[in-house]
């Protein structure tokens, strides 16, 4: 159904395919696992996943078992890596949906092995190792015990070894090289234990465009697919196009006299004869309240500022400087309009966040409309 409220997210699948082709350009022989957790970083798996399959993606990565099941229910046949692991109780659905969890300790490996044996099935997994992120993963010193124990679990097959980088988005820092060295050491421990998994992978988006990938047989891009990899270094290294365009339309226009105020808290006072536009989007849609009196948007291709406090369902814009403006005009809150663009990076800087959170924060009540 066409949305009744004129506020939606246009998801530009051409831009997504372009960003994917940039990853392919540098990935060489490495397979690409597209990270589509959190509903494809807020862009919607429903449109993003089929477009990536058409573009030739080899695998998908999700955080939750539930997200993996949702992909299977969409008909996805590619391997699906569950990067949050296998919580107790998830064994049967992991097997039934042919999901590939990460594992880094024995108790969940044993639970999965028992479930697989009982079902007469085999299950692939990737070993997650911690080279310095300090989050999930086994450390090198645990591997002498862990690797033989994993090898002896008959229904499980280790098909990959992975780690996650903590500062790849700051390529000037030396710590990524430390993590790479630790990963190389772990690779020899794994091989010495008689295991030879096919997939070796470290690189997230930033790693893909800043590291030597010759030792990697898989890469795990997320944010770059959505056009949100930020920083001067990456502006040079990769050409990205914004995928998400958050769009609304002017619902009402009014004239303010000098001294009139708008919105909660009277935080905007007209200092000249002013025109304000009411736009049906607010913090319940993910339009961050910190953008009160700070955010900007594009109307008729021109930037105009948010006037006053962002409400739950509405914002106001000061449109005094527009030569022409009318009820029904298109408003771009994120993304591009002609040559102008409100980037996720600009928005993120204003609210003290990162592009990831801007995308993921656009709430479910904003319909996603896919454009080919
Ligand atoms: C384990 C893992 N790999 C890859 C990614 C993709 O990272 P990015 O979106 O920075 O490319 C993530 C995302 O957080 C992750 O958790």
Structure description:
The protein is of the alpha/beta class. The protein contains twelve helices and 20 strands. Helix 4 links the parallel strand 3 and strand 4. Helix 1 packs across helix 3 and helix 11 (344-351) packs across helix 12 (355-361). The radius of gyration is 24 Å and the shape is elongated. The relative contact order is 0.14. The model has no long low-confidence stretch (mean pLDDT 97). Bound molecules: pyridoxal-5'-phosphate. Pyridoxal-5'-phosphate (PLP) binds at residues 35, 83, 164, 204-206, 220-224.
Give me the count of strands: 20
Q: Major beta sheet, specifics? A: 8 strands, parallel
Query: Could you say which overall geometry the principal axes of the C-alpha atoms support?
Result: elongated
CATH-scheme architecture of the largest domain? Alpha-Beta Barrel
Give the count of structural domains.
2
Fill in the CATH topology of the largest domain: TIM Barrel
The level-1 CATH class of the largest domain: Alpha Beta
The CA-CA distance between the termini, in Å, is 18 Å
Mean pLDDT equals 97
CATH homologous superfamily classification of the largest domain: Alanine racemase
Number of helices: 12
What value does the Rg take, in angstroms? 24 Å
Level of helix content? 25-40%
> Low-confidence stretches at least 5 residues in length (pLDDT < 50)?
none
Strand numbers in spatial order across the main sheet = 8-7-6-5-4-3-2-9
Bound molecules: pyridoxal-5'-phosphate
Strand content: 15-25%
Structure class? alpha/beta
């Amino acid at each position: 159904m066409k949305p009744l409220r004129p506020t939606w997210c246009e998801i530009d699948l051409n831009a997504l395919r372009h960003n994917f082709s940039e990853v392919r350009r540098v990935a060489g022989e490495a397979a690409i696992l597209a990270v589509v957790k959190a509903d494809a970083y807020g862009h919607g798996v429903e449109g993003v996943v089929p477009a990536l399959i058409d573009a030739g993606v080899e695998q998908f990565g999700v955080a939750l078992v539930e997200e993996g099941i949702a992909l299977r229910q969409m008909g996805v046949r590619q391997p699906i890596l569950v990067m949050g692991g296998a919580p107790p109780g998830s064994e049967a659905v992991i097997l039934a949906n042919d999901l590939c969890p990460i594992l880094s300790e024995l108790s969940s490996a044993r639970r999965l092995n028992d479930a697989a044996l009982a079902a007469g099935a085999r299950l692939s997994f990737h070993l997650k190792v911690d080279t310095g992120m300090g989050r999930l993963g086994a450390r090198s010193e645990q591997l002498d015990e862990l690797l033989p124990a994993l090898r002896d679990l008959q229904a499980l097959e280790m098909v990959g070894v992975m780690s996650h980088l903590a500062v790849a988005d700051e390529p000037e820092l030396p710590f990524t090289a430390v993590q790479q060295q630790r990963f190389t050491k772990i690779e020899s421990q794994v091989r010495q234990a008689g295991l030879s998994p096919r997939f070796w992978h470290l690189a997230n988006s930033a790693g893909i465009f800043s590291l030597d990938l010759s030792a990697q047989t898989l890469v795990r891009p997320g944010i770059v697919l959505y056009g949100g990899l930020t920083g001067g270094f990456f502006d040079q290294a990769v050409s990205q196009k914004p995928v998400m365009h958050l769009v609304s339309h002017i619902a009402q226009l009014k004239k303010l006299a000098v001294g009139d105020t708008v919105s909660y808290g009277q935080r905007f006072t007209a200092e000249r004869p002013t025109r304000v536009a009411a736009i049906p989007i607010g913090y319940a849609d993910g339009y961050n309240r910190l953008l009160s009196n700070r955010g900007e948007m594009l109307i008729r291709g021109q930037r105009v500022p948010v006037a006053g406090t962002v409400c739950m369902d509405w914002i106001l814009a000061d449109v005094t400087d527009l030569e022409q403006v009318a009820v029904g005009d298109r408003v771009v809150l994120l993304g591009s309009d002609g040559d102008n663009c409100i980037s996720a990076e600009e928005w993120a800087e204003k609210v003290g966040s990162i592009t990831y959170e801007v995308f993921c924060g656009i709430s479910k009540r904003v319909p996603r409309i896919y454009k080919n």
